[in-house]
Design brief:
Number of helices: 3
Strand order of the largest sheet: 1-4-3-2
Strand content: 35-45%
Distance between the termini: 80 Å
Structural class: alpha+beta
Radius of gyration: 30 Å
Helix content: 10-25%
Order of helices and strands: EEEEHHHEEEEEEEEE
Largest sheet: 4 strands, antiparallel
């Protein structure tokens, strides 16, 4: 940038010539180069696909945040947020890309990721019953590990294939209860529900892996 303090050769001319701007600031003639505009780099087809897929996966999982807050453990000094870890793990393990679109394998959704681990419920079975009810039954672990407690709590979740949303049931039911029933409304009749279960210790510090239980259809 150049300035002119004595009477200027350019007189009263002000404006721009090519990328040079002539102006006055506090009575001083100023000659400066126009700031170059940053050109936005065009995204490649692959980058556009990756961005779209990340958004699709994030939106798909968002309604399961309640379950993730309970079950997904991330190291304190991980260098990334829990949500980014959740989306990244599912991008790697639960989807395939078909014609630029994310296709979920619902059997590979993981609502928990233990660092400090307890045992899963033993032999869980999900079944639809008349009256808009779905019941989970399980058995006591025949060989409990040191971490296993009878007051560990059951976390049950389902993905509604008709609405495209997850529901999470923090049941308050202990490992020792051996069953839990979800009562649906009549408008859920015919909805295909994909079910998941994991355990959390009474103090919330230990979690189990997620087990996919399969799909059942709500019955009237």
């Amino acid at each position: 940038m150049a300035t002119q303090r004595s009477p200027s050769m350019i007189g009263n001319f002000r404006g721009r010539i090519d990328n040079v701007i002539l102006t006055e600031w506090r009575g001083i003639s100023v000659l400066k180069k126009e700031a170059s505009k940053l050109k936005k780099k065009k995204l490649s087809d692959e980058q556009i696909t990756n961005t779209n897929v990340f958004g699709t996966v994030s939106n798909f999982l968002r309604s399961a945040k309640r379950a993730f807050r309970i079950g997904y453990q991330v190291p304190r000094k991980a260098g990334f947020t829990p949500w980014n870890a959740i989306v990244s793990d599912h991008l790697k393990n639960a989807i395939t890309i078909h014609k630029g679109q994310a296709v979920f394998d619902l059997s590979k959704v993981q609502l928990s990721k233990p660092i400090h681990k307890t045992q899963q419920v033993w032999n869980p079975v999900i079944s639809a019953e008349s009256g808009y009810k779905v019941t989970l039954r399980w058995e006591l672990t025949p060989e409990p590990e040191k971490c296993t407690r009878m007051d560990d709590k059951v976390i049950l979740a389902c993905y509604d294939g008709n609405t495209g949303r997850f529901s999470t049931y923090y049941t308050g039911v202990s490992r020792s209860a051996l069953s839990y029933t979800v009562d649906f409304l009549d408008w859920h009749a015919g909805h295909d529900m994909y079910w998941y279960v994991f355990m959390v210790s009474d103090n919330g510090k230990l979690v189990s892996e997620t087990e996919y239980l399969g799909m059942v259809t709500v019955r009237p």
